[in-house]
Design brief:
With 290 residues, the chain is an alpha/beta fold. The protein is 31% helix and 16% strand. Strands 1-3-2-4-9-8-5-6-7 form a nine-stranded mixed sheet, with helices on both faces. Strand 8, helix 7 and strand 9 (254-260) form a beta-alpha-beta unit. It is globular and about 50 Å long.
Length: 290
């Protein structure tokens, strides 16, 4: 049964035998602590003149996860995961955002930890908006080459909207690249509690009662992640990212997590989708230690 009237059943590939995906429940959240939510929409990317294709991100992620990660990894027991399916897009940014918030609230009301897979990065706004209703004024930690604090609607505005509409008190950005961000946006970001962190920073999250974590795959170098909406020629390695993602999973103040901008239309050999699957499992590895 769909999570809400606006979600569809998860389209899992059949070839999951022996892989982590074999353990994912799709029939019921009973016994699960983590929930997956697909956000197959790239309307915001198109509005910002980015490379379209991220609408296929959730399906590509599931296909990659079906072929990666063993059911019983060494010295680790993953939390049980429920796949709540995909939020059906509407063609309207605002209406799709409303559906995302509704679906995320339904997961939270069932006591599940929500993980979203996208999709344009604008979808982080309605996803975290739901979390902020249950865990007020969460501090943001995000991994992105871009500030994403544009004043105009589209994939480049989620963190501005979270500050302005959800009372997010502070933002911590890792992976920031000055060459692709405007001075105006950086000034706005800093004026509203934003802090950029060096790539060499110690892996440690800020102290706060509530945190949210968002990972835009374009923080990764294009050599590792070609399948994104905006290629990054000077980004992180997967190993650098893995340490931070695992730390996000381990921190009990983190109330939600997302992996965004997976764009299979531009992926080479499914490389980026496989990285997304790996980072998802790294997050669960950290979560298992809570």
């Amino acid at each position: 049964m769909p999570l809400t009237p606006h979600t569809s059943a998860p389209p899992w590939p059949k070839e999951t035998a022996g892989r982590f995906a074999e353990t994912v429940r799709t029939d019921s959240p009973d016994g699960c602590t983590v929930a997956l939510l697909g956000l197959p929409d790239d309307t915001g990317v198109r509005m910002n003149n980015g490379r379209t294709g991220a609408a296929g991100g959730p399906a590509a992620f599931r296909a990659a996860l079906a072929r990666y990660g063993t059911t019983e990894p060494a010295a680790l027991k993953y939390p049980r995961v429920f796949d709540a399916g995909d939020v059906m897009p509407t063609g309207s940014l605002e209406k799709t955002h409303e559906r995302v918030t509704e679906a995320a609230l339904a997961l939270l009301d069932r006591g599940l930890f929500p993980i979203a897979i996208g999709g344009g990065h604008d979808l982080t706004f309605p996803f975290v908006r739901a979390v902020a209703q249950r865990f007020p004024k969460p501090t943001g930690v995000y991994f992105d080459a871009h500030l994403d604090v544009r004043e105009t609607a589209g994939s480049g505005m989620p963190f501005r909207k979270l500050v302005e509409e959800c009372e997010v008190p502070a933002l911590h950005l890792h992976g920031f690249r000055p060459l692709v961000n405007s001075r105006e946006h950086l000034e706005w970001f800093r004026h509203h509690g934003g802090k950029t962190h060096l790539d060499s920073a110690k892996v440690a999250l800020p102290k706060a009662k509530h945190l949210f974590a968002s990972f835009d795959l374009d923080v990764l170098d294009a050599a590792h992640a070609p399948g994104v909406s905006a290629l990054n020629p000077a980004g992180w390695t997967v190993r650098e990212a893995e340490a931070w993602v695992r730390a996000c999973g381990a921190n009990p103040a983190v109330r939600c997590f997302d992996l965004m901008e997976l764009n299979p239309a531009h992926d080479v050999d499914g490389r980026t989708a496989r990285v997304a699957a790996h980072l998802f499992l790294a997050f669960l590895q950290g979560f298992a230690s809570r």
